[in-house]
Amino acid sequence: MHGVRRGEQNGRVPTTNQWLAFVVASALFIQVPGPSLLFTIGRALTVGRRDALLSVVGNALGVTTQVFLVAVGLGAVVAASAHAYTVLKILGAGYVVWLGIQAIRHRADARAALDAVDLGAVTPTRASHSLRIGFVVGLTNPKTIVFFVAFLPQFVNEPAGHTGLQLAMLGAVFGAMAVVSDGTWALAASKARDWFARRPQRLDSLGVAGGVMMIGLGATMAVASE
Q1: pTM over 0.70
Q2: Are 163 and 84 in contact (CB under 8 A)?
């Protein structure tokens, strides 16, 4: 206990009160519908449980990478530069819209995959593909960059420095919380997908719904203000 308190006083880690406040603020932030949550639901409806969960992990890795960039000052540069923020926002939005268009274009793939399961001929999607998709969305999510730049410093114990290390620790905890929350949403959404899949023809409409959701999300990201 004395070691923990001494570490807190030396600024190596946030204080207990700061940790509690950070966990509460992060939990509330994660539950607010935004790019990561809506992307997770869209993926679960479009590609199913396994790939949705892999996308969740990739998304958390992307978000955590944002924290490391914030820790070395890049986040502050992006937040201060309207041009940099706009470029990041447009890139992320464009990528999500592209994913939605692809989901609509290939809406029959899910039904074909379901038929292949019955024939024992299904080929699993490469895990790296879903991880990469989630990573890009998490890395280019402007909502979390602004959150990190604006709020993370409030939970840093200032007295003896180590600011970068503390920001990295806070980001790692945030990423873990995001995995648990988004993973729960992915499982719930994939259950709904399984229910629809009892009649394979419903999967076409389901793929379109997931694609439209991601296109709408991308458009919202593109026009949303800070």
Answers
A1: no
A2: no
Cα separations (Å) of 53 from 44, 59, 86, 136, 208? Answer: 8, 10, 29, 15, 20
Contact in structure between 77 and 84 (CB atoms under 8 Å): yes
Residue 166 sits in which domain range?
Answer: 2-223
Spell out the alpha helix ranges (H) of the chain: 2-9, 16-31, 35-47, 49-71, 74-80, 82-105, 109-119, 127-139, 142-151, 163-196, 202-223
- Residues 60-96 have pLDDT tens digits of 899 888 888 877 776 566 556 767 767 767 877 787 7
Q: At what angle do helices 35-47 and 202-223 cross, to 10 degrees?
A: 160
Is the separation of the CB atoms in 177 and 22 below 8 Å? no
DSSP state of 154: G
